[in-house]
Amino acid sequence: MIIDQLRVVGSAQTNKVMIAELIRVSVRALGRRPPEPTKEGTGQLIYPFDPELAATAVTYLRTPTRVVWDLYRVRATRLEALYELLLADVIADTRAWSGSVAGISVEARRVDEFPAGERQVVGTVKNALVEGAQRHGRRLHVEPDRPDLLLVVRMDDAGDIVVSLDLGGGSLSQRGWRTESVEAPMREHLAAVLLMLARFDPRHDILVDPMCGSGTIPIEAALAARGAGRPLTLRCPALASVWPTQPPAPLFADAAPVVIGNDIDLGAVVAAKQNGKSAGMDGAITWRRGDLRGLTPGEITAIAAERGRTVERGLVLCNPPYGERLDVVDLRLLYGDIGDWLCTLGPGWRAGFIVDNPEFEPAMGRVLRADPRIKKPLANGNLRSYFYLYEP
Ligand SMILES: C[S@@+](CC[C@H](N)C(=O)[O-])C[C@H]1O[C@@H](n2cnc3c(N)ncnc32)[C@H](O)[C@@H]1O
Predict the structure, then answer these.
(1) Is 183 in the pocket of ligand 1 (CB under 6 A)?
(2) Are residues 128 and 206 in the same domain?
């Protein structure tokens, strides 16, 4: 069956933030709200395909990991049927999703329940796409390393095989600015999810990551405040009329966020600074090296004043160490110290943390004498972490 869906894919439990972010960027870039999506699981949204919305989503969304165009759905339990049904769809399809000559690569996801191996599924899909395109006079060849078009084949919850065109050409989480790393860096899209969950508003909030490691949260905060876009590399005739060929203009070019990244480790601050530079955000972020307990409200006020702002509201956002290198006593002390330090900031501050350690919540509760307003399971790579938001 030929289908026409825009699929926005993110981490589990992030549907709400992806919906909210797409509304925000679509209203700003297109002057209209997207329709209500259908949800598939807790980390996938499906919209009717709309080329303008698709271009906006790939350019500006920061919380998803992929944005794809679902092209074909096939119900088949054997490779022969998969080939024949898909070929018939590609031949009947009038959408020119490829150019007259293009290198393609096909990736498989979650096809382990198909009664054939992953490589056979990929090979069959590839053959049907190449053969079908040929009937339209288009020549597709296999180009695994630097394809012009990346196609994704996966089995959906109903057991159907869905073939999609990856509009971002791969993971959107890798923004390209991370040239330096530290131990346990956060994936970039997760930082964007945390900013949305904590409702970061750069017009009013001063953002502080007191344990910033390689700088993921401060850099994403500065980029999100500006509504920075990514250049689109995909060339697809069916989308040519709406697909920007120039580097995209930021959605909020005049944003002047106040963002502070601090870490106790010199190597981490050096890496964060370098990453900020690669992201073009170095001037927008104040980097500091030191123990978080030394970052005083006075210093934050001075940094904000340098940028012409006063501190009425603030957001602390970070992922503290979770115990790989610290024993439980040290961790309790550290978590308690983070709580004590938060208390020094005074009213108007809220604090969000992503942590994978059961000691965190009781330690914070002892100091703040409050439960988190939000406690939400959220994966951080392979870690089954929680996001906590504390508000005064
Ligand atoms: C899990 S890492 C943060 C990773 C970071 N979000 C990233 O994406 O790279 C925790 C960081 O906390 C820092 N840290 C530990 N104790 C600290 C303290 N007392 N003050 C400031 N930073 C501290 C560590 O140096 C480490 O970089």
Answers:
(1) no
(2) no
